[in-house]
Automatic annotation (TrEMBL):
EC number of this enzyme: 2.3.1.-
GO molecular function: acyltransferase activity, transferring groups other than amino-acyl groups
Domain N-acetyltransferase: 6-209
Keyword Acyltransferase: yes
Entry superkingdom: Bacteria
InterPro entries (UniProt xref): Acyl_CoA_acyltransferase, GNAT_dom
Name by which UniProt lists this protein: GNAT family N-acetyltransferase
Keywords, alphabetical: Acyltransferase, Transferase
SUPFAM superfamilies hit by this protein: Acyl-CoA N-acyltransferases (Nat)
Keyword Iron: no
Pfam families for the chain: Acetyltransf_1 (PF00583)
Length: 209
């Protein structure tokens, strides 16, 4: 349970369209990952893909707030609007288990890599391949979801002794979430994200369990 009105559940194949909607709403086009990549993650490690979905009571309150603010969309303009239906996915976290953390290289942490080629259920390193929450569902929710999702995955996989992932150097809000969950910076991948003339660095973050 996250903030009482949102809940965590396992992602399923039927969630792929929703996962892609969240992906496109959360990341610039040049660093978005494909539906094929997400499908491979679900197949390789079904237990490592978690969905944050809207709860019914919280959503009634959210809809009322949206109406008062004039932000509700009935879908006639093709937009999603700011109101979420009960059970609608508003965030996701995907992960895989590795034998060990790779050296700090672009290939070691390559976007779009195949989880089916790296995942090992007997490994000791949990790699967070992606994490996102829809912009309209943020405001404290992201941190609760991230921390609770990690606690769940590590409890279910007690061999894990490290959690590792990368984050864009400019994503201050995301970095604040990870720092608040106890993660530290352990490396840099220069110009990893190709989102400008020179690109942006990826920061490696890690936490021991």
């Amino acid at each position: 349970m996250v903030r009482g009105t949102l809940r965590i559940r396992r992602a399923e194949a039927r969630d792929l369209p929703a996962l892609m909607n969240i992906e496109r709403a959360s990341f610039a086009p040049e660093i978005q990952e494909s539906e094929e990549t997400f499908a491979d993650r679900l197949n390789a490690f079904p237990g490592g893909a978690l969905i944050l979905e809207a709860g019914s009571e919280g959503n009634r309150n959210d809809r009322e707030d949206c109406r008062r603010a004039g932000n509700c969309s009935n879908g006639s303009n093709g937009g999603n609007g700011g109101c979420r239906r009960s059970g609608e996915p508003v965030g996701y976290l995907t992960a895989e288990i590795w034998d060990k953390a790779p050296p700090p290289s672009a290939e070691g942490y390559r976007l779009g890599h195949r989880a089916s080629e790296r995942h090992n259920p007997e490994g000791r390193v949990l790699y967070i391949s992606s994490f996102a929450v829809l912009p309209e569902a943020r405001g404290g929710t992201g941190r609760a979801f991230f921390c609770e999702a990690l606690d769940l995955l590590c409890a279910e996989n007690p061999k894990i002794d490290r959690v590792v992932f990368i984050v864009h150097e400019q994503w201050r809000a995301a970095r604040h979430i990870y720092e608040g969950c106890g993660f530290q910076y352990t490396g840099v991948l220069p110009s990893f994200f190709k989102d400008g003339d020179a690109g942006s660095d990826a920061l490696i973050m890690e936490k021991k369990r």
